[in-house]
TrEMBL record:
It comes from Actinomadura bangladeshensis. The keyword Transmembrane helix does not apply. The keyword Secreted does not apply. This is Exonuclease. Keywords: Exonuclease, Hydrolase, Nuclease. Gene3D superfamilies: Ribonuclease H-like superfamily/Ribonuclease H. It comes from the Bacteria. One of its GO terms (molecular function) is nucleic acid binding.
Length: 215
């Protein structure tokens, strides 16, 4: 059975979406390390009404001690983080992942909702966070093993576009956030939350011709 779960618990009748971003020093967790991650609560949905939240108002950010000596220089350069500094000053992974899980529990309880993780693209960020929560957190992943939403797939479905042609560069400008993409995990989680707001409310291109031109 994947991970640890809370089967049998009552499921709230709405969802709270949490935008996440990860900065890592390699392609996979275990051999390489998640160096930082940011989370921003960005809105609720009850199956009828979407209520966006200001993603800058409720956030979590952590920088972590590396868990191995291995790293890919090109991956490390993306974030600009210093592994030596993090080895000395970063949070212990178990402490950070338990604190992050407690934050998720707190914001979802306040909203009376179930948490759903959102990311663009989902695979990289989910892979690291799920592995770290499963490995280090006392209760495992606060999102279970499947409560997540890939914004790239959501765009492709709404636009009627191929997934391979659903990059941010190929999205209509009105869907994108005005915030810069800084590769600070919290900055980028907030930026991504604004993309999520726009994409969730978007009804798709006005015609198939619009979708073709977006590709």
């Amino acid at each position: 059975m994947p991970g640890r779960s809370t089967r049998g618990a009552a499921v709230p009748e709405r969802e709270l979406y949490v935008s996440v971003d990860v900065e890592a020093d390699g392609p996979i967790p275990g051999p390489y390390s998640m160096l930082s991650f940011g989370m921003a609560a960005c809105g609720t949905f009850d199956g009828r009404v979407f209520a966006p939240d200001d993603p800058a108002e409720s956030t979590f950010y952590a920088e972590l001690k590396p868990i191995s000596d291995a790293y890919v220089p090109e991956s490390l350069a993306v974030s600009g983080l210093d592994r030596d500094r993090l080895a000395a000053e970063g949070r212990d992974p178990a402490e950070a992942m338990n604190a992050a899980a407690a934050w998720v529990a707190g914001v979802t309880a306040a909203a009376g909702a179930s948490p759903v993780l959102v990311a663009y693209p989902l695979g990289f960020d989910w892979m690291f966070l799920y592995w770290y929560w499963t490995r280090f957190a006392d209760a495992g992943s606060p999102f279970g093993h499947s409560r997540h939403l890939d914004l790239k797939s959501l765009y492709a479905a709404k636009a009627g576009a191929m997934v391979t042609r659903s990059t941010k560069r190929q999205m209509p400008a009105e869907l994108l956030s005005d915030r810069p993409h800084t590769h600070n995990a919290l900055d980028d989680a907030i930026e991504q939350a604004e993309l999520f707001h726009n994409l969730f409310r978007w009804t798709g291109p006005s015609s198939r011709a619009d979708a073709s031109s977006a590709e």
